[in-house]
Specification:
- With 601 residues, this protein is an alpha/beta fold.
- The chain folds into two domains: 263 residues, ABC transporter type 1, transmembrane domain (ABC transporter transmembrane region fold); 240 residues, P-loop containing nucleotide triphosphate hydrolases (Rossmann fold, 3-Layer(aba) Sandwich).
- 63% of the residues lie in helices and 10% in strands.
- It has 23 helices and twelve strands.
- The chain has a six-stranded mixed beta sheet with strand order 6-9-10-3-11-12. Strands 2-1-4-5 form a four-stranded antiparallel beta sheet, with no helix packed on it. Strands 7-8 form a two-stranded antiparallel ribbon.
- The protein is elongated and about 115 Å long.
- The protein starts with 11 loop residues before the first helix and ends with a helix.
Length: 601
């Protein structure tokens, strides 16, 4: 939690002025009981109405000054807290964007959403309250005790006993409740995860008639959360009654001591009233402080959760990705630059007119094991692809098709072997440089809320309208745009809900084509297209300017049978490689897939 305080660095002035003005307000509050004492002991005792009126005006002035100080403090506290929350959200979002797929899979989407929203809101509220009350309440508590000692030492001993006793209760409950609040947030993560699954998979749940099972699963996790919230709520609720018992007991003792001393002529009636007022102020401030501590305990738990995400180190640094990925292979950070041709050496080689041809993409005995997995998802993948070639990748469900193409733009890092692009290990590229070369269309077609133009310009922000329509023509998506009111400026709902599955797929393909990539990856991205549209799409991609190297992942042999090379995967291994005709003759896995889709001749 302490590390998050660095986000208040730009609000040092506000962080100082807010508690300063609150303590000024508290100072004026501490003077008020003395004014009341003067009214009772002088004005009322001597029946001097002019003096009483004058002191009442003094109280009003003190109240107005205190109000002005309070409003000013609130302004500075709110400004600092809002700025803190904004900077923290921006930093967390930027950090999450820098994480690889491995870390995002490990943490979980629902947890990241909770920490980005609920947890940061809790921390922001705590910052606001701390700046306003964390110094003010202790200042009034100890200030009231000091003022009591200036009135009468014997009566003030009640304060000296009461305050440590209250502190013991408050901080004891805080120590018990902090771990509980952490558990509450963890169970809230689980509830949000189930809610997210049910909302995104609502149609599947209905199709398989699983509503009752999902309801019971949701209710079970909700009951677990409710139980923990009730438990921590009972512990926190114990704070107020105990505080009131101690304070009221202290007030009784104070009145008894004061009455005895008034009877003996040691104290005046006004001074007893002042002592009771100070005790009341202590009661109010300690209740505020207790509630503040409950808020702080929640915020500390939430802040630690946010901090834990910020402390996750990406396995793929933005600049050079050689450190962590190669550490497991017994190499020192930077050693790969010595062991292999580096950037400078490659530039020199590229500058020379070499006769030999470097493959555009090369997999050299590549293996991939996901973090925490017991076995490899890909094993000994070895092939090369020349510039302009089209490669089809096919295999059964779970055979590793998507895993293979995700290694090219470094969504994941190979755990064995190496992946080369233009003769360089992908780990030697910065992520920005590598991904400028690659355009990828994911299995799930995702469109963002906005306009068609804004979605297409994700591919390249400075793309002209002519380039956008050129990409739409290649992706067979011009008719989709022309059929919408506003054409390129037509609205796109969140997730592209106002488009059909095929339309979404064609628009996402167009988005990838806008950037004119050297390597184009279509990860089962034409599954919703009819055979005729799919054929026109593949023909248009082959005729694209610049001859990109194309990887087509598909379940349909018709989509890849005209590819220059087809790679057949079976349980993470290459079961066959070659043209359609060669694989029909020599690869049983491919032949079975083909014959399952077409009648056996």
């Amino acid at each position: 939690m302490r590390k998050l305080l660095c986000f208040l660095r730009d609000y040092k002035k506000e962080s100082v002025l807010a508690p300063l003005f609150k303590m000024l307000e508290a100072s004026f509050e501490l003077i008020v009981p003395l004014v009341v004492t003067a009214i009772i002991d002088v004005g009322i005792a001597q029946k001097d109405s002019g003096y009483i009126l004058c002191m009442c005006l003094v109280m009003v002035v003190l109240g107005m000054i205190g109000l002005a100080c309070s409003v000013t403090a609130q302004y500075f506290a709110a400004k600092a807290a809002a700025g803190f929350g904004t900077k923290l959200r921006h930093q967390l979002f930027a950090h999450i964007q820098g994480l690889s797929f491995t870390e995002i899979d490990q943490v979980g989407t629902s947890t990241l959403i909770t920490r980005m929203t609920s947890d940061i809101n809790q921390v922001q509220s705590a910052v606001n309250m701390v700046l306003r009350l964390f110094l003010r309440s202790p200042f009034i508590v100890f200030g009231a005790m000091v003022m009591a000692f200036t009135i009468n030492v014997k009566a003030a001993l009640v304060f000296a006993v009461t305050i440590p006793l209250l502190s013991l209760v408050v901080f004891g409950i805080m120590a018990i409740s902090i771990p509980m609040y952490r558990k509450v947030q963890e169970r809230l993560d689980k509830v949000l995860g189930i809610t997210r699954e049910n909302l995104t998979g609502a149609r599947v749940i209905r199709a398989f008639h699983k509503e009752e099972e999902e309801k019971s699963r949701f209710e079970e996790s909700l009951e677990s959360l409710t139980f923990m919230q009730n438990h921590v709520g009972k512990v926190s609720a114990f704070l107020n009654p105990v505080t009131y018992v101690i304070i009221n007991g202290a007030t009784v003792m104070l009145l008894y001591t004061g009455a005895v001393q008034v009877d003996g002529g040691i104290l005046t009636q006004g001074e007893v009233v002042a002592l009771v007022n100070y005790m009341s102020q202590i009661l109010v401030e300690l209740v505020k402080l207790a509630n503040l501590i409950v808020l702080i305990t929640k915020a500390v738990a939430c802040g630690n959760r946010v901090e834990s995400v910020l402390e996750i180190q990406s396995s793929m640094p933005k600049e050079m990705g050689l450190e962590s990925p190669l550490a497991g292979q017994g190499m020192k950070p930077g050693a790969a630059n010595e062991a292999q041709p580096g950037q400078k050496g490659l530039d020199r080689k590229q500058g020379m007119e070499r006769q030999e041809k470097v493959p555009k993409v090369q997999f050299s005995h590549v293996g991939l094991a996901y973090q925490g997995a017991g076995a490899e998802s890909l094993s000994d993948i070895d092939f090369s692809v020349e510039k302009g070639e089209t490669v089809g990748i096919i295999g059964g469900t779970g055979s590793g098709k998507t895993s293979l193409v995700h290694l090219i733009p470094r969504f994941y890092d190979a755990t064995k072997g190496e992946v080369l692009v233009d003769g360089r290990n992908v780990r030697e590229y910065s992520l920005e440089e590598l991904r400028r070369k690659v355009g990828i269309v994911m299995q799930r077609a995702v469109l963002f809320q906005g306009t068609i133009r804004e979605n297409l310009c994700w591919g390249r922000q400075d793309a002209t309208e002519e380039e956008l329509y050129q990409a739409l023509d290649t992706a067979q998506a011009r008719e989709v745009v022309e059929g919408k009111d506003g054409k390129l400026d037509a609205r796109v709902e969140q997730g592209g809900k106002n488009f059909s599955g095929g339309q979404r797929q064609r628009l996402t393909i167009a988005r990838a084509l806008v950037r004119k990539p050297e390597i184009l990856i279509l990860d089962d991205s034409a599954s919703a297209l009819d055979y005729a549209t799919d054929a026109r799409l593949r023909k248009a991609i082959r005729e694209m300017e610049g001859s990109p190297t194309v990887f087509i992942v598909s379940q349909r042999t018709s989509s890849i049978q005209h590819a220059d090379k087809i790679i057949v995967l079976d349980d993470g291994e290459v079961a066959g490689m070659g043209t359609h005709e060669q694989l029909i003759e020599n690869c049983q896995v491919y032949r079975e897939i083909y014959e399952s889709q077409y009648k056996k001749a």
